[in-house]
Write a structure and sequence with these properties.
about 25% helix; alpha+beta; homodimer; about 30% strand; eight-stranded mixed beta sheet
Chain lengths: ~240, ~240
């Protein structure tokens, strides 16, 4: 991915109008080649090359570039997402930020490690007692507009201490490291959110869909993740339809 | 600034509800100390410590942390802005990204240098013939809402190829380096935009307020900067009140 950054690569629009480049495709192909060699009986679900053996006990979920709109506009806030599910439960999640040299790795039951170049430390969410003290990050308000959720989103953004825009997967790493309190998004795909679950939950946070249900491969792509259960509950209440 | 990043510094809300930290204050004090020593008869306008000798021939304009909302949420997309005006005309502009190790320096009449750690190269805007091919970046849609400009903003964002959110001053560096085509913002202060002018214009782009007038210390804080004059003109047309 790094070698293609800011190299004026061609941008193709997929059927859903999201951009894709040779960097997305090469990075996913590279990950798939490693998995085929190392664990040929595992399943793979990837953003660019689809699904193989999704009924396997172990299934990898790959998003080679989460934040392709950042990537194609020269911003380093994009990442590679890797999740491993066992029997449908996410047991490993990785957010890798290739241009920043930062990586979060969460293993279910074992917590989260944050690596910044040569340093490594445990990542932990911070406490936040109430929504009006919460720093919220979300990638774009247009993901709510697309799904007809602008009224709910407006209620939420006006109730928090501060909404901040941009970031894609990086926002969830910032949540796991206790720099922010809440991430709310919509219109996500399975490969956008599955890796984030072991990271946010492993750091002590709470992750669900907008109705408070656990996130699964079949979720509707609306996510609420908070570092403190109190903020999660208060955000959920505002996100219900009137 | 680097030493305070992600150190859980106290966040104070200024009268305009924008956040400020000890990092903003120390960084501006450090710059002012250098200027007082090196050029005591120059004027200084700074975000945190106000105005001194604004009638001087040379006036420095300082924003120690542009993107304090990014800074306080742990994102590295914030920068230090330094401008030097002579008789009211910006002749030097610097965007320094302390966490990314990147810097744009523009000198009127001499072009723009982009430094990324140990490499340096000339920055140049790219061509873009029309708005529907333009990649647009803006920090937050709420800066338009605050000024009652949502209708104009909505017209523009729907007319471009892709709007992308977040970034603060970094967006203007990306514009000068030809990674994007357009930045439109509102509700900015003098110290938010003055350093950007020699960088965008020096890289071949066009900078103005929303009526197409040159930006000065007395502008209303609404800016349109484009890499190609055609996109600038088309964006201006959509930003006029109906």
């Amino acid at each position: 991915v790094r070698g293609h950054f800011r190299q004026n690569v061609a941008i193709h629009d997929k059927a859903d109008e999201t951009p894709v480049t040779i960097a997305d495709r090469e990075a996913e192909a590279a990950m798939r080649a490693i998995l085929t060699e190392a664990c040929p009986d595992h399943g793979v679900i990837g953003e660019e090359y689809g699904t193989e053996r999704e009924d396997a006990e172990y299934v990898w979920i790959l998003d080679p570039i989460d934040g392709t709109k950042s990537f194609v506009t020269g911003s380093p806030l994009f990442g590679t997402l890797i999740a491993l599910m066992r029997s449908g439960e996410p047991m490993l999640g990785v957010i890798n930020m290739p241009m920043l040299g930062e990586r979060w790795t969460g293993v279910a039951g074992e917590g989260v490690v944050f690596q910044a170049r040569r340093d490594a430390s445990a990542a932990l969410c911070r406490e936040c007692p109430s929504l009006d003290e919460a720093y919220l990050r979300t990638t774009s308000p247009e993901m709510f507009e697309t799904e007809g959720l602008t009224a709910q989103w407006d209620r939420l953004r006006k109730a928090v201490k501060q909404p901040v825009y941009g970031g894609d997967c990086y926002n969830y790493g910032l949540l796991a490291s206790g720099h922010i309190d809440l991430v709310v998004e919509a219109n996500l795909q399975t490969y956008d959110y599955m890796a984030l679950i072991p990271i946010v939950e492993g750091a002590g946070g709470v992750a669900s869909d907008w109705r408070g249900r656990p996130l699964t491969v079949a979720s509707d792509g609306r996510v609420v993740m908070a570092g403190d259960a109190r903020v999660h509950a208060q955000a959920l209440a505002l996100l219900q339809p009137s």
